[in-house]
Write the structure tokens for this entry.
Amino acid sequence: MLREEDVKTALQSVNDPEIPVSVWDLGLVTNFGIEGHRVSVQLTFTALGCSCMDWILDDVKAAVLRVPEVSAVEVEVVWDPPWTTDRMTAKARQQLAAWGIQS
């Protein structure tokens, strides 16, 4: 049976290509759902002009497809609600601070 925790773990494994922090911990994943063996993911970005958008979208899809029992993944880019640093987890803040980046 496909579990939400397995999808969440897959999403946590995808790092932003520019900084070593997961898209989950950055708060880029706004929602995800499971219907049978299909997963839908809603994702936002820190900026409209993010140069890594395509890489992140491809990486998210590939990571979720590696979850056993997932047969299809749909990733939708959403801009509402807009991303802010308030969406980041404590783990992301610690990782960024270790790199000298203030959040």
